[in-house]
């Protein structure tokens, strides 16, 4: 819908505390006002705008899912009931097509997805019997072109989906169209120039900045200009042949896509951040000069600068390189992120350990900027080791170590609470933390290293754990053993991903504080502490094959150790440091998986007290209570590195493709 000079934009509904408020935005002067407050306090409803009338369908009313229909006259600001639907539903999608309103999907009173659609005839004021839709998805986007309703992406039974369906309101039939290039849910979609733009959302792990355009003439999707920053649960409208994209609870910046220069720019900030809401363009009661009542406005001029850290990085880059706007637009025209989602499993040439990466996100251009300013994946030579957990001094910092410059930068991030007894791993460019925050828990948390935000991740574990261990093979995280909430040792192993979680074969023996190492498709569990009255250290070694789902007992280490570190390098496994029954150990033993034999390696110095280690460039970097060492197997020698300033036990060291220079 193109705007006239008196058109404004209304933001309606959502799932947040301010969902009952309708905010009005004037795109000309970028000012906001509170247009109306729905006294009924309805949340999670769907709605459509027809001329000056806003139809509200279902939602949550006094914590109950309702089938009620309400009509709000935008001119008189009167709200009145308008009958009811055939089925109570919340978080549904509503669209107008051929003088009929279609309410699609949503959830019922038991929070279960609804796979039905209801049709309301505006002229006859009647509802038709709900019909089943021929797909099972929710949290999708909808868009209308002529007589067809397009249902795009969403959640299916296996996670985020790229599928696209169409419903013809003339033939009353569903059809399946070509899928998008990436899986996504909680996205938005708008029609422009007889094409559909699918914007933002998230896949099963990451919030997306991807924008795709669908052409109904050839049934094809193509990737177009990415957003200025990733955006989940956004909302967009067409205004003066431009797409205006509003934010969400976490990112309230407003983006605008100009059809001339093909670049997303930040044009303001929302008055109230929302999630899963709706936006409409309507001809309001503004004066011809665009003036409004200033008492309710929030001046947006002071907020027109970039609201995200990504955009701040862009500005600094442009300032330092003295680029003007024209040069920036030219560069942005040439920066096109390839958006084919392909997940690969490779064997690290340095360590022999299986590691996973998401090719789509490897070179993601986070802020529509030069690739050099992207902190993750822009330069595979830029590596960072993050050291976290196991705090003994009460300090809850997370350290960052640059293995190239060999410097340690303290307090890259202060975690919100003291963490102990958890396990962490990098999964699809996110640092995931499993279980064990001082006590057993089934929580999975996700730390975004770019934004430094820590959020809960779904799904949770099947079993509460602490002192667990994790390993990644073929894009699955294996969560092994640990203690439950009653301090009992666990044999169980969970195979976890954002799409599934299930138990696999249990370990053969109970123990905690073991070393866990991945080589190819096999997971090795080495040493640890076995349960008994006084707790004893063990030298037991077990191997799990992820292909056959079987555990095998291997030859034991020469020493019984707990809290040791394990590293795979040059097709061998190094068991380093830890503790024995007489104190800290300087022992290093080397395991050959082919011959199933252990040999003794060069001992650590007595002051090392190694707690965790990683392999990098055919060397092993060891981190101790205070000290850090680098072992070169060619010279069979340890080089001393900068000391850690914080004493740690049961800590984690994670190697990430990450450029630390932007955060120092």
Describe the structure.
The longest helix has 12 residues. A hairpin with an 8-residue loop joins strand 1 and strand 2. About 15% of the residues have low confidence. The two termini are about 45 Å apart. By secondary structure, this protein is mainly beta. The chain is about 5% helix and about 45% strand. It is built from 3 helices and 58 strands. The chain has a 5-stranded antiparallel sheet, with no helix packed on it. It has 2 domains: about 280 residues, Neuraminidase, CATH 2.120.10.80; about 280 residues, Neuraminidase, CATH 2.120.10.
Features:
664 residues; mainly beta; Neuraminidase; five-stranded antiparallel β-sheet; 58 strands; 4% helix; elongated
Q: Report the principal-axis shape.
A: elongated
Count the DSSP helices: 3
Q: What is the CATH fold-level name of the largest domain?
A: Neuraminidase
Question: What's the CATH C level of the largest domain?
Answer: Mainly Beta
* Portion in helices: under 10%
